[in-house]
Amino acid sequence: MTIKKIAVIGGGTMGSGIAEVAAKSGCDTIVVEIDASLAEQAQKKLEVSTEKAVSRGKMTDGDRAGLLNRISFTTTFDELTDRDLVIEAVVESPSVKASVFKTLDEIVQKDGILASNTSSISIGEIADSTNRGPQVLGMHFFNPATVQPLVELIASEVTSEETLDKVESFTREVMGKHPIRTIDRAGFVVNRLLVPYLLQAMHMYDRGQASKEDIDAGMKFGCAHPQGPLELSDLIGLDTLQLVAEVLYDEFKEPTYAPPPILKRMVTAGHLGRKTGKGFYTYE
Ligand code: NAI
Asked: Strand pairing partners for 115?
C-alpha cells in the first residue's frame, strides 16, 4: 500500500500545519474538527498560511490552488473509511486520544495506519484502545510543522517494522521531512535532551551564577544556538515546560528532569513566558 489518502484529526496549531504539509505533498487530505465553526477556523488558517507562502515566493498561485483542492474540512469521521494514514493531533489528553483511536479503529480500512502527534503520552497506551497495535505509531512533528523538518517516529512495543518502514519512507520521500526513529520512552529523543538543558539554565539563574542575558548569550555566541535556553523556555511556555518535565520525571525518576523551584513559582504566579507577556523576560 502506498500512502496517498491522509486524514488529520484536530485542526489546531499542529493539525493545521500537518494537514498543509500533507496536501502540499500531493496527498488527498481530510481534516476533522469538533464542530463547524472550528472546521471553518482551521480552513481559514490554511488559506491565510498558504496565501503568505505565495506572497513570500515559496509557492505559486497554481500550487496553492492545487493544494486547496486536495484538502477538505469536516466534523465527522464517516469519510475516513478509505484513508491510508490518519494523523491524530487533538488535545494532549489520554482519554480524548483513547476515544479518537477507538473510533478510528472501527472506521478506517483494516490496512490503514494510525499515528499520534502526542508529545508525552505513551504510544503503547494509545494503541491499546485499538485492535491494530502493529499499525499504530507516533509521528511527532515540531512547531511550526510547515517549517521544521524533523519528525520523530515512535515505535511502541508492538508497532511493526513494516509500519515503520512505510511511514519513514512516506515522511522522507513524500512529505520532504527528516524522520528519526525512537522507541516509546517519555520525551522521545529531542525533549529528553532539550528539557534537562533548559532546566539547568533555570537552576543556574536561580543560584545567581550568571545573569539571564549572559546565560542566553553563552549558548547563542558560544554554541551558535538561535536562542538562549531562558528565551527558548519563554517561547515554549513555562507551563508547557513544567508539564513535560513532570512527565519525564515521573517516567525516569532522575533529578535532572525535576521541575526547578523557580519554574514552579513562576507558573503559579501566571508568568508563563511569551503567552502571558512575562517570563524570564518581559514581552510587549
Ligand atoms: P490545539 O489545542 O491547538 O489543537 C487541538 C485541536 O484538536 C483543537 O482545535 C480541538 O478543537 C481539536 N480536537 C479536540 N478533540 C477533538 C476530537 N475529538 N476530534 C477532532 N478534533 C478535536 O493543540 P496543538 O498544540 O495543536 O496540539 C495537538 C497535539 O500535538 C497534542 O497532542 C500536543 O501535545 C502535540 N504537539 C504540540 C506541539 C506544539 O508546539 N503545540 C508540538 C508537537 C506536538
From this structure: 87, 137
Instruction: Give the end of a domain, one of 183, 216, 247.
Output: 183
Residue at a domain's end among 144, 159, 183: 183
Residue 72: active-site member: no
Query: Is ligand 1 within 6 A of the CB of residue 16?
Result: no
Which is the catalytic residue, given 119, 122, 129, 233? 119
Question: Could you read off the pLDDT of 87-108 as tens digits, one per residue?
Answer: 999 998 999 999 999 999 999 9
Same domain for 94 and 197, yes or no, is no
* CB of residue 118 inside a 6 A radius of ligand 1: yes
Q: Do 222 and 169 have their domain in common?
A: no
What is the spatial distance between Cα 119 and Cα 110, in angstroms, rounded to a whole number?
26
* pTM across the whole model: 0.94
Alpha carbon of 9 to ligand 1 centroid (Å): 8
Q: Is the pLDDT of residue 1 over 80?
A: no
Q: How far apart are CA 156 and CA 185, in angstroms?
A: 9
- Residue 119 catalytic? yes
Question: Grid cell 484513508 — which residue?
Answer: 83
